[in-house]
Amino acid sequence: MIRAEARRREADQRDWLLRGTPPPPWVRWPPPLLLLAITLVQLLTPRTLDLSFLIAAVPPLAALSYGPALTALVGAGVLVLLSLPVFDLGHPGNSDELTISFIALLSVLFAWVRSRREAQLVTVRTVAEAAQLAVLPPLQEQVGRVRCAGLYEAAQHETLVGGDFFDVRRGPRGVRALIGDVQGHGLAAVGTVAALLGAFREAVLDRADLEGVAAQLDRRLVVDSAGQQHAELFATAVLLEFPDDASVVRVVSCGHPQPLLLRGTEVTELDVPSGAPLGLGIAGLAPPEGLTVPLLPGDLLLGLTDGVGEARDASGTFYPLIDRLTAMVEADATVLDEPGGLAERVWADVLAYAGSIRDDVTLMVFAPGPVAEAAQRQPEREPEPRPDPGQPDAA
């Protein structure tokens, strides 16, 4: 689900020298290949050709990918080759050998420092990734009777979590999903994302309807921003519910882009009443209105954040999602067979259209299964939802 990790690893492989990350495997080959090439060329060419100056580059190249011990071994090998007359490496003098020896020693020191830095970086990054994945864990392929797939791309470089958030949970009466977007993006929004996801996971079990879930999320942000001077903490979100006893989807929108219904080759934007964003006190002002949509076998639902619709091409034109998605499905209807493949195709089309993104992007595809299948998977005992409290609490 979370392709940000894969994207970060690809960037590490591409920009390893600037990032200080472990080098890719191919970097281990230049030192021995260069040493072999210098030796062969020197043996096969006239004595007037002197390539001994190139051999000084071998230890520094080794230090880029080898550890200090192996770098020292490469440096010693270079000095041995210089001293053997059979290889005829330009007959270097004492000053040349001392210079190369000094370069080899510096290379060993550099390799030691680099190895320690890489080990520290791996430890720090492992802890950071564990913390971010604890906030936004990978999406399960199936929750209840709903197959789920999606794609998440954080706009901030080298992060797995940004301002977008999502979750899919099974509750007492069905499967509930959340897709949202916190004000701002990047690591500064992670605390708000964690608070909202925690509130959602509790509300899935406690609230009898999606309106109650939205009210609990809204109260979480209102309480968190209370006491903060000039606090402007809000988030948009869309909530979906797939009940166990009916082939429908219930949708509640809090100022968020509308989900899309894919039925055959037809792509339709659901006309969900758009309520106020979370964090503006909607629980006591204007609770959002829900929409119930009947589903047919084979229907898919696509949820997204505004990072998709706000992608622009070189002329500044916004990405026309419905038009391009319709054309995509009409050209190849098999794209609907696999939810994960559909998310990947849409993301590839966004990149082809815009070239790059400047905001977090979330795409989620839901493929509800038959109602009877969900009934067979229903556990023997399930917790009953608690009624919505009459008064907002203080936490």
UniProtKB/TrEMBL annotation:
Signal peptide boundaries: none
Keywords: Hydrolase, Membrane, Transmembrane, Transmembrane helix
One Pfam family named in its UniProt record: SpoIIE
EC number(s) recorded for this UniProt protein: 3.1.3.16
Residue ranges of every copy of the PPM-type phosphatase domain listed in the record: 146-368
Membrane spanning stretches: 61-86, 98-115
Ranges for region Disordered: 372-395
Record's protein name: PP2C family protein-serine/threonine phosphatase
Annotated GO MF terms: protein serine/threonine phosphatase activity
Chain intervals with Basic and acidic residues compositional bias: 378-387
Keyword Acyltransferase appears in the UniProt entry: no
Gene source species: Streptomyces atriruber
Enzyme class per UniProt: hydrolase
